[in-house]
Design goal:
Helix 1 packs antiparallel against helix 2. The protein has one domain. The radius of gyration is 14 Å and the shape is elongated. It is mainly α and 65 residues long. The longest helix is centred in the N-terminal third of the chain and has 31 residues. It contains two helices and no strands.
């Protein structure tokens, strides 16, 4: 049961992180005053950072191995 709930947590968090990374990137672009040249790469770095942190916390707090 713990494993199946972990899958649900990971999926929901991944969806939220996708939108959060997009929002963060938009804020960075607004602050810069222009569309960033390597937008896809920056989006990937933001998403990866958020995902690694969040998924690590889910594993710790949900008891998944």
């Amino acid at each position: 049961m713990v494993v199946s709930m972990s899958i649900v947590y990971f999926t929901l968090v991944a969806i939220i992180l996708y939108f959060a990374a997009d929002w963060i990137l938009e804020r960075v672009e607004i602050a810069a005053g222009k569309r960033l040249e390597h937008r896809s790469l920056i989006f990937f770095v933001i998403l990866l950072t958020l995902a690694l942190t969040s998924f690590s916390l889910i594993q710790v707090y949900s008891g998944a191995s």
